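step: validate -> pass
step: tokenize input -> pass
step: predict -> running
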Amino acid sequence: MCVGCTKPANEPIEVMTFNVRYDNPDDASNNWALRKEAAAKMINYYAPDVFGAQEVLHHQLTDLKELLPNYEALGVGRLDGKEAGEYAPVFYNKHRFNMVRYGNFALSEHPTHFGEKGWDAACERMATWVILQDIQTNKKFFFINTHLDHVGLVAQRMGAKLIQQKAVELGKGLPIIVTGDFNVTAESDAFLAMTEDGLLKDSRAVAPICYGPNWSFHAFGTVSLEERPLIDHIFVSKEFKIFSSRVIDDRTKNGTGYLSDHNPVMVKLLIR
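step: predict -> pass
step: emit ->
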């Protein structure tokens, strides 16, 4: 695969969501400094055209920008709308897309105010969005990436509804892709909130081919296989045809090194 090459007109779009795990010194042998190059190599290998990442601190964003030179990165820190706290950035292949418009909002009762915990959330949460235009076809789509709260059930559901509201408001009728660590499985209220109005569908549920395991979170392999949940999702609007969905369970070359405590999830799709 060649992330730096211009793709033929109407080529399918490869989309990824990847929680990279924030740089936590307590992670010891799984620390970011020991994982970052392998994580970037995985991204360059699968070469998603656009992907959303989660738990990205500012210096991690800088690392990824350096290691992924064919991508442009967009986003802000959730604590101040600048550089403080975790980002939920969007990366896109600058050889395939042009950015039309981009922005960020908080997942709270006050979307323009960063640094506030919304509803019953344990943490400040946010989303980053962008309108991208395919250089070859001129087709546009609205892409939004997020990280829902891991505790607050109200915050999860209300965050999901706010994301849809903003997608309609900002996307102005464009096809929609939503990526993220939603911290919920398909049986949850927040997951159902993403699909109940018919605006979006779970890409993995409708994909004719699914690769990889049926889970994404493993906490660096400490969660038993039977208890690992699929909490990283990609939702799309009806304008997209889905070809396949993949949960990527790759390791470093010796087979023991984890890229993150989450597996990336990737889908191949096409604007009809």
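step: describe -> The CA atoms of residues 108 and 236 lie 23 Å apart.
step: cleanup -> pass
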